[in-house]
Amino acid sequence: MAKPKIGIFDFACCEGCQLQIVNMEEDLLNLLALVDPVEWREAMSDQSDHYDIAIVEGSITRDEDAERLRKVRESADYVIALGACATIGGVNKLQNNFAIEDVQVMVYGDAANMPHLASTPAQAIHEVVKVDYMVHGCPIDAHELTHVVRCLLAGKQPVMPDYPVCVECKMKENGCRYEYGEVCLGPVTRAGCDARCPSNGFWCFGCRGYVDDPNLEAAASVMEQYGKTLDDLKSKMALFGSAQEHKL
Amino acid sequence: MNIKRVTEKEFAAWVDALTPKHTLYAPQAKEDRFAFDRLTAGEDLRLDYDVSILPPKKYFLPQKEVLIKFDRKGNFESVIAHEPFVLFGVHPYDFVAMDQLNTIFEQDNYDVHYMARKEAATVVVSDVQVASADVFAGCMGNATVEDRDGYDVLLTRLDDGSYVVETRSEKGEVLTGLLSSAVDADEVTLQQREQVWNRTREQLQKHKLEMTPEQIPALLDKSYDHPLWAEKAELCHSCGSCNLVCPTCYCFTVEDELNWDMETGQRYRQWDGCMLTGFATVTGNHNFRDKKEARYRHRYYRKGKYVWDMIGEIACVGCGRCISACTTNIANPVEVFNQLSEEQQ
Amino acid sequence: MMSATELSQVRDIYLPQKATVTEIYSMTETEKFFRFHLEEGEAFDYMPGQFMEVSVPGFGEAPISISSSPTRVDKTTFEMVIRKAGNVTTALHALVPGEPVGLRGPYGTHFPVEDAMKGKDVVFVCGGIGLVPVRSAIHYVLDNRDQYGEVTILSGTRSPEDRLFTEELYEWKTRSDITFLETVDKADARWGGTVGVITTLLKRIQINPANTVVIVCGPPIMYKFVLLELRKLNVDNSQIYVSLERHMRCAVGKCGHCQINGLYACQKGAVFNYADIVDVKEAI
Fold it and tell me: What does the H/E/C string look like for C158-175?
């Protein structure tokens, strides 16, 4: 039987999530034993017109990108959104806090009106096409991606956690970042990263997006008790929480 | 079996002698907190720890544990660990919690995965030397465990830095046999130990329970519809932190994972928590405990009543871990039980 | 302390036994009928109303009610009807005869076919796939027909396409020694029968409440209404048995998911005497 064809595509992003795939070392060989990459700009030059699985990195910030994404969707049986830019819009959505004209001037200065720089408010890819599965994170955890791919190849729906990072952080036996005087987004952020940041001494940045029903009011209510302000929390939430469904 | 008085120096030498001979898990510094971990050098031992971030139950019921190996042809094989190890320096309240879990995993369907670890363990209890900020084991009757059975060695540090080392079983003797040069504890030493215990019972009451633990089940019997559950749960993140740090929580989920060969794999169990949103959701998405307050209440009923109904013990030992783990301060069992009690009267 | 050898001889409560799918066919759009045969090892003694944990290696385990009766198949054979809903059941639906599964069990309590129901009139109230476990009890009763009084089967489904065991339903309808009534929530053009929820049927039967045992099994939403109707018929709570579904992982009273307040549904249920749980707030 022919190996399933995989295409990897990127839109507005730093391509750091693809880099995580390239860096998988032994697991990359294991993955290549199961699938056949037919399009992957970052690693190869071939192209194809059908994909069993399309892995899409990046946000949609231009009309022509939306069009290209729709073509990818049409050519793929499964679409996996790869990384925060693709799954939640990520840091690209910071621009959605401002008028798009102002953002263009801020970034491109005098060249802001050049037609090829025309931009639209950032969108996660599921806001443009149907997405079958999301691998969250900035960057992604390559183990999660390979788990998802193995599940899809076996015909199994991968289970995405709907509980906060605290679960994994506690299992890792970390001290709570709040006890270190930090504002941590762990209690409202979707788990699945094995509490990577808190395990390395950082607060959770919220890169995996909120859990389905985040209690943001509860997070806000304790700022004073920890000697923090609501603005401290909001500024932490801006990075990955801009233009999301849930807001404070 | 025997009780020795061991000088500080002899004690340190004893631990140094144990580390190469045995697989020891003991409290050690983790940043500015403490955690049980493999002890390879005696100098890393911190019996002055106030509380470990996770309870030592993780050695009997690991966070993630393979139960079964399988292949897709339908062959299943149990994976059972039974390498001997020593849990060194368990606080009394944590021992009480482990003892409860031992009963629960042994009775009504013997869980061989848990029990194999339990059987392989030698448990050295150490009386609390430094009280943590939120400990209330003294209110729960679990500050000391001299009148309980089931552990192998009991360590009590006296004010002069020497230790009283009481051997309680043959397993314990394997360890304390190395202390043969130490003197037997005399009457004065035993009195000093009593004094330490009395003081510990007083000190481990950072929160004051306004009732005896045995009154909690009856209190909960009358409190099901109390407004407190909804009031407190308002600030609940459903993050399960209180579950995960709790020494008596033992709920778990079970999942399969396939290996790269796509043919073989393992079935593992992993800690779960009744405070997590989907804990009682069945396939098809009906959630039998879909409200935060119902999940919040369920946890306290497990601690104060359901486990009591099962094994006759209160499943809150007073370690206080949930109190400090909860970022929104809603997880203090003493506060909950006291408030329910006040408003009953 | 147990030695390693001794431990290795202790039965692992989580270890499935290998079984094979011997028959599989579609009953509705979402339900398939399965027959499993235990390959080797001990046969399982089971009673109507009990369930098994069914494994598809790599996909996981799911608790599934046994639909066959020990009066009709030997103890190495199990019939089940499985709705395609999650990963395990989807994988089960993809199986073909000859492929392996794992089975462990049987678990839970059973319908009181050998005690409370004996000599009594019996009313079965089934909603949707609630018929699946109840079919086991129905077969058991029909195979020992002279040991029970009047037998009434009430069955409701959402639509005519959702009806299970249609040939058996026909047989039950035509038998003179039982009363069989069915309804659908929503009819189609070809449906000539009753339309309405299951309680519609309860309003149409006459029972002798003092001498009747009622078995109720259906979706969570159904119980409240059926129990209300049974109260109107003056059936004592202790004469009612309900089978309750809950999330389960272990089925051996450890994992905690199935708790109904303090009760482990996998141990004290899934079949409960209603009088025992009438005050258990999370039950119905």
Answer: CCHHHCCCHHHHHHHHHC
Amino acid code (one letter) for B27: P
Longest dimension (CA), chain B: 67
Same domain (yes/no): A133, A202: no
CB B78 within 8 A of CB B119: no
Neighbours of C73 (CB within 10 A): 15
Query: Which secondary-structure segment (H or E) carries C226?
Result: helix C222-232
Is A159 inside any structural domain? no
User: Minimal Cα–Cα distance from C185 to chain B, Å?
Assistant: 20
Size of chain B, expressed as the number of residues it contains: 345
Interface residues of chain B, partner chain A, Cβ below 8 Å: 30-33, 35, 53-54, 58, 63-64, 234-241, 244-245, 255, 257-258, 260, 262, 271, 273, 276-278, 324-325, 327-329
pTM for the structure as a whole: 0.95
Best mutation target, B71, B83, B112, B226, to test chain C (most C CBs within 10 A): B112
Instruction: Give me the DSSP letters along A146-199.
Output: HHHHHHHHHT-PPPPP-SBHHHHHHHTTPPPGGGGT----GGGBB--S-SHHHH
CB contact under 8 A, A155 and C91: yes
Q: Return the closest-CA partner of residue C178 out of C152, C214, C141.
A: C152
Interchain pair B235, A221: CB under 8 A: yes
- Same domain for A87 and A169? no
Q: Which two tokens stand for residue B103?
A: 């009963």
Reported as a single tens digit per residue, the pLDDT across A131-179 is 999 999 999 999 999 999 999 999 999 988 999 999 999 999 999 999 9
Contact C235, C208 (CB under 8 A): no
- What total number of domains does chain A contain? 2
Buried b (16+ CB within 10 A) or exposed e, B25-63: bbbbebeebbbbbebeebeebbbebbbbbbbbbbbbbbb
Contacts of C58 in chain A (CB under 8 A): 154, 156
Q: Would you state the structure tokens that stand for residue B40, as one six-digit string?
A: 């390879």
The whole-number mean pLDDT for each consecutive block of 10 residues of chain C, a chain of 284 residues, reads 69 95 96 92 87 97 96 91 95 97 96 97 96 97 97 96 96 96 95 94 94 96 95 96 94 96 95 96 94
Nearest CA to B23 out of B121, B144, B129 is that of B121
Domain that holds residue A236: 165-241
Helices (H) and strands (E) in chain B, counts: 12, 12
Report the sign of the C-alpha dihedral through residues B131, B137, B138, B142, in that order.
negative
Q: For residue range B264-318, what is the model confidence (pLDDT) as tens digits?
A: 999 999 999 999 999 999 888 899 999 999 999 999 999 999 999 999 999 999 9
C-beta atoms of A154 and C59 within 8 A: yes
ipTM of the complex: 0.95
Which of B109, B253, B288 faces C252 most closely, judged by CB atoms?
B109
All structural domains of chain C: 11-107 (2.40.30.10), 121-243 (3.40.50.80)
Q: Which residues of A touch B235 (CB under 8 A)?
A: 215, 217-218, 221-222
DSSP 3-state assignment of B295?
A: helix
**Lookup: tokens for B230:** 């909804």
Tokens 């593992």 belong to B268
